[in-house]
Design brief:
It comes from Methanothrix thermoacetophila (strain DSM 6194 / JCM 14653 / NBRC 101360 / PT) (Methanosaeta thermophila). This protein is an all-alpha fold and 95 residues long. The protein has one domain. The protein has helices spanning 8-18, 30-42, 46-59, 66-80. Helix 3 (46-59) runs antiparallel to helix 4. The radius of gyration is 14 Å and the shape is globular.
Length: 95
């Protein structure tokens, strides 16, 4: 599939569309966002690209809403390649 370049502006737009009800709007750390964009675009493997997108949730470039932005971005990267992640059945055990 065709790989497209992710931009910081694209991620900011996704964040703004997903989180109009967030308590605090805006970017907390533009440098972190730029670093993650660079890492995503360096990867050739689609699953590694999606993994870097999910890492956005851990690095907190925004004041709020990084998890929903990270999951949406990862899903977008996978779907553009014709892939997706699926929810699996997980057994829980009581100790």
């Amino acid at each position: 599939m065709t790989r497209y370049k992710i931009t910081a502006e694209m991620i900011i737009e996704i964040h703004d569309l997903l989180g109009p009800d967030l308590e605090i709007q805006g970017i907390r750390d533009k440098g972190t966002l730029d670093y993650l964009v660079e890492r995503i675009n360096k990867e050739r493997d689609v699953f590694k690209r999606a993994a870097w997108a999910l890492y956005l949730a851990d690095q907190h470039p925004f004041w709020d809403g990084q998890k929903r932005t990270a999951f949406y971005l990862a899903d977008m990267i996978l779907r553009a390649d014709g892939s997706t992640y699926m929810k699996s059945k997980i057994r829980s055990y009581r100790c």
